[in-house]
Amino acid sequence: MANITKKVSWTSRGDDAGGGEGTPLLNGSEEVRYTRQDSPKGRPEEIPHNEKLLSLKFESLDYDSSENQLFLEEERRMSYLGFRCLEISRWVICGLIGFLTGLIACCIDIAVEKLAGVKYFVVKQNIEKFTEVGGLSISLILWAVLNSSLVMVGAITVAFIEPIAAGSGIPQIKCYLNGVKIPRVVRLKTLVVKVFGVICSVAGGLAVGKEGPMIHSGAVVAAGVSQGRSTSLKKDFKIFEYFRRDTEKRDFVSAGAAAGVSAAFGAPVGGVLFSLEEGASFWNQMLTWRIFFASMISTFTLNFFLSIYNNKPGDLSSPGLINFGRFESDSVAYNFYEIPLFIVMGAIGGLLGALFNKLNYWLTIFRIRYVHRPCLQVMEAMLVAAVTATVSFSMIYFSNDCQPLGPDQSEDYQLQLFCADGEYNSMATTFFNTPERSVRSLFHNPPGSYNPGTLGMFTVTYFFLACWTYGLAVSAGVFIPSLLIGAAWGRLFGILLPTVTASGSIWADPGKYALIGAAAQLGGIVRMTLSLTVIMVEATGNVTYGLPIMLVLMTAKIVGDYFVEGLYDIHIKLQSVPFLHWEAPATSHWLTAREVMGAPVICFNRLEKVGTIVDILSNTSTNHNGFPVVVPVAASDEPGKICGLILRSQLIVLLKHKVFVELARSRLTQRKLQLKDFRDAYPRFPPIQSIHVSQDERDCMMDLSEFMNPTPYTVPQVHRHISSCRKHLFLVSSSYSELWASDIWWWWIMTTESSVW
Fold first, then answer.
1. Quick one: where's region Disordered (predicted)?
2. Whose C-alpha in 413, 641, 673, 731 is 20 to 30 A from the C-alpha of 471?
3. Is 208 in contact with 478 (CB distance < 8 Å)?
4. pTM listed for this prediction
5. What does the alpha-carbon distance between residue 10 and residue 368 come to, in Å, rounded to a whole number?
6. pLDDT by residue (tens digit) across 581-622?
């Protein structure tokens, strides 16, 4: 791939204003060409981005429990009742995650419906007024201004306050569950900006949906609730302190992501499978039950509060943000000889999905190069909103597809425009509506509600609008636009089928083809299989379509993967994130562990001088986060024997609390350090620059024996098939006379293209 001049960043505006410091990349065999703006020392101001290179700015979540002496002492002190209380606390936290996620989904749904309702009502009144007297250009301007205004507010909050809230957030959560620490991805400010931004973008008429961001919102809720405090608000509730570590936090974030899927689609089982299939690399049976519990609470909470809002208390008929409506088996049953047609539709969905992903890939590269400033990002979002309104109005204006009004129409904002009395403009049912309502109309409107030309024109225009919209500096998802595009061409497919058959009766209802097309298009773009099958089945409320949807999604994935990766994987790679896939590349099996390790190793003695520790931690050229602890061998020049692992975060806490041997002997320390001190500092450990160490203290010694992990992961130097783990790994020879280490993740190289190494 071509080098990209500007850096990609999920995280902040500061990356673009970083002076002479660029994003470090894990270099491969290909030479990196620098830009002309080189510093006097020869270092470029910005390193050109290449998605085949992996950024060193990302760190791994510490999923490995450090079983040091402090940990073992705490475990020994805990009684059986204490362990049972911890297990009950996990269930309580999952229940709170589901409740709060469902409540947020309810607020988003109500806010979008209110804002969109007011906007469409004003525009509809204006169109009806000027249809008779002329001057519909005023209606167009009004529509474009309303859209741009709402989108502008949402884009400003994202671009200037919290850039990581842009998009659906699913790629970031996938990375987090995969073990990658994405900065600020689960902060409270991110949640607030995400919720506010998605309300503005959906109500602003963009080709987006509010379902995808619910997954990110649920994950943020889980990360906050499970810690029992808010670091953003500097408020500590002194609860759930035991769970303040990456190992526990990861499980709760998995539950939050599943609860988000459940709230979005009313699919609790699909939410569990989404966390399993798309993100989490660590799983167990009890975690499955807790995640399913959180998902059920989430959809029930949303259902309950929406029933109160709709003045139908207790009517739990709205399980998710999107309601596909009920598909009755008798009216839209399928036959065995239709299965090949469904497979063909899956192939079409895979081809269209690959085209969508490729176009969006090149568009993202363009944005990286030229639309990297916040003000430009806001202007682009406003431009897309205005163009979307203009295209929608033009399609409605020039459409002559008039359909008679009937009791089966489910549109709330029907436009008559130039149609005769008692008729409505069919094109307006797709453009002049929220995307969720448009999808439901394509699924359930009776045969004859749309002309083939209307569906064809809508598919083409909305395809490119959705492709252009994804990647803007707004909070938005791609699920609903994908379903809407697929439902349009799927219904068109069903309408055209009778023209190639002798009898048209067996293709009477094109609604089932709209459903299959929606599944094919969504599968072709995001490449989900198992979880998406269950989500679609749960959302339709009819298991009859389980087999066709499964076949369609498998076909779409196979065909799409032949050309390009899924949309989320593309954006993850563009961020240079070291994402660990389930399987290593086939060409990596000839590599041995020794070939991906680094030497010499920066390590500490079990009894180390404080000045040495401070100097190593302050050295930016060795910005490692894990250090081997060694015991010197009696023979002089031989390297020491490994005896443990100490993390940067642990060393910083030790320096902050002045845990020095001399102070302990002189009894100047207030108390013995406990695990609570490390948990209180988690997750925002102070930088080493904020730790003051006097010159006298630099000469003190620090005993690491009590705090290091005595059982680090080590691998033989000739080992070929290393399991997929996220650890600080040490490579040792049989005699322990040699030691290599990989503080960066060894699998960065193992999981990239073959050209990297």
1. 1-47
2. 413
3. yes
4. 0.86
5. 11
6. 777 777 777 777 677 776 777 888 888 889 999 998 988 777
